[in-house]
Write a structure and sequence with these properties.
mainly alpha, 0% strand, single chain, 9 helices, 52% helix
């Protein structure tokens, strides 16, 4: 009986892994999504996230439920967003975007054994992005492997990654996207792609899907941080 339960669990892991694996598209960041840690299509710094493309913009009835709902981390979101000088609503909306896969430590580590470049933690951060972001920060002594077990660390790292992206935003922008939308696109696709989008480059399907979902969660994220922050 124990073996049967174990087999079913691994089938579930593999099934979700296949869905999550669809995040890798057209080699590297060609559609705004990373195929692994390290660089975007321009060869710039690492991007933390690689979310599943092709997901329609969410509605309240389709939001993450149960322990996938990041609203329970609203206090940490407000705390670390304020420390990093970014909008809490942006950080919360990104956490909703990144709730498309199970954030269970055992699941994440099982998936990472099958896909070594997988992202970790509730903010779906790759190792290269985490190691780059932690330099000189209060969590410099922490490790990427800790992210699945420590949501607060994952939120803190995501907040400071967004802070660093904001520093890299071009002064001259096309006006097509808001500052927060560009930061979200940079979170998902990396700073090189973010700069290109700021100058008016067209979004690929995966980046557009990420932005659509962010916009779908935007109002909810604002309500959550105002209510719980």
């Amino acid at each position: 009986m124990a073996q049967t339960r174990k087999s079913r669990w691994w089938l579930a892991v593999a099934g979700v892994a296949i869905v999550a694996g669809c995040a890798v598209t057209q080699g590297g960041h060609g559609n705004g999504h990373g195929s692994g840690p390290g660089a975007d299509r321009t060869g710039a710094s690492a991007s933390p996230s690689a979310s599943a493309p092709g997901t329609p913009a969410p509605t309240p009835s389709g939001m993450a439920a149960g322990n996938q709902d990041p609203s329970r981390f609203a206090k940490q979101v407000v705390k670390y967003a304020d420390q990093a000088g970014i909008h809490p609503q942006l950080l919360m909306a990104i956490l909703y975007n990144e709730s498309y896969k199970p954030h269970d430590p055992a699941w994440e580590r099982a998936w990472q054994r099958m896909k070594p470049d997988a992202a970790f933690g509730i903010a779906n951060m790759h190792k290269a992005a985490f190691d780059e972001t932690k330099r000189g920060r209060d969590f410099a002594g922490r490790g990427w492997q800790e992210l699945p077990d420590d949501p607060s660390l994952a939120i803190e790292a995501a907040a400071w990654y967004l802070h660093d992206l904001a520093r890299d935003l071009p002064d001259a922008r096309s006006g097509t996207y808001t500052r927060d939308e560009l930061l979200a696109l940079g979170y998902n696709a990396g700073p090189g792609n973010m700069a290109a989008f700021a100058r008016g480059a067209h979004l690929g399907p995966a980046a557009q899907s990420y932005l659509d979902r962010l916009r779908g969660y935007w109002s909810l994220a604002g309500q959550v941080v105002r209510r719980h922050g």
